[in-house]
Amino acid sequence: MLTRIINCQIFDPGRNGAQTGAATFQGYVEFSNDVITAVGEGVPPPADAGVKVIDARGATLAPSFVDMYANFCEPGYEYRETIASGSRAAAAGGYTAVCLRPDTDPLIQRSNGVRFLLERGALAGLIDVYPIGALSMGMEGQTMSEIGEMAAAGAILVGEGNVFVKRTGFLRRAMEYAGNFGLVTILTNEDPSLAEGPAHEGFMSTARGLKCSPTAAEEIAVARHIALAELTGTKTLLAKVSSAAGVRLIRDARARGVNVFASVSVHNLALNEDANAGYNAMTKVWPPLRAESDRRELLKALEEGVIDIVVSDHDPHVIEEKEVEFDLATTGAASIELTWSVLNTLAARGELGFSTVIRALSTAPRGIMGIPGGEIRTGMPADFVLLDRTAKWTVSAADMVTCGCNTPFDGQELIGKPVMTIRRGDVTWQS
Known about the structure:
29% of the residues lie in helices and 24% in strands. It is of the alpha/beta class. It has a domain at 84-369: TIM Barrel, CATH 3.20.20. Strands 1, 2, 3, 4, 5, 16, 17 and 18 form an 8-stranded mixed sheet that branches. It has an 8-stranded parallel sheet with strand order 6-7-8-9-10-13-14-15. It is globular, with a radius of gyration of 21 Å. Residues 17-21 have low confidence and may be disordered.
């Protein structure tokens, strides 16, 4: 069936800076058999009989989002989240593709684990699931996992979740081997020998008596991973960079042409260490919320393209795991359905550009992963999100789609909300 979306502001990153005009224009889009067949400006011609028309009512149409770092907890922790419930939450957030961490039970370290996640994702039918295969068996950094077999089963990314690989020699060999299959290696960046706790090392953590982690723990890890990316030539994504020191190293590496990319968590862009001052375990995330100067540098780096993408770092937990002392509470926040709204709120405040937000959520992750999409033009996949950029609403954890209610944004007023998500021409979410 031919479908037409009318009365929308189309934001096409592919037009930004091109001779064809501005990135945003009033127009319409037609698609059939999950492929865009026409894009036009202004008022569309009369629709033929049988054409399905979607009236966007002035909303902004943009390429759908891709999340390169999330946890849907299945298999093994289905009481927190499942592939089905996580897919619903992702679709509610404007996502049509999500990369899932390997630290489940059992771990995603063999081809059967990759196939399981792909099958569960296909069964849910709302997003494209991209399993991140573990680099090492047991994620212990000793013996290489079945990287080749996982690649053959459909994995295009490998990493160790939030685990830091201690043996540098092993990590080099694993990265080289993964590079042979064209896989992206995702690495998290904190030297555990320096990190004593979940708060940023600074005045606030000292005054509150919280165990903390200095930015040097990240700086050392980032420097090592950049050196390994340069040595091996493997496409490397530095996950969840949180400090100005890390940004400085990445900027230098990119200037030298090192094949390294970087992501930042939405939490580190929107919040700083002061959020931990009240011992609210909902703000306990990893990496820790840093100083305001770090947050400002992260925003600047994202605008400049030194940091490529924003990840939700979606990590749902049951309330019992959070309603304990700060040091004993589990780490992580449920955030995938809130990520765009949080970033759009920052854009409305002048802290980010709207085009930067779309690049970080849509265009850049597709480019790193080598998957199609990210532009609204004829022949591209019909993967869209309709966005109300001005609606003001208040987050209620109890009303979230995800099974997890552990969000640091509970009770906050946000600006903007996804109103419809379309994947391969099918509506997967509508508010």
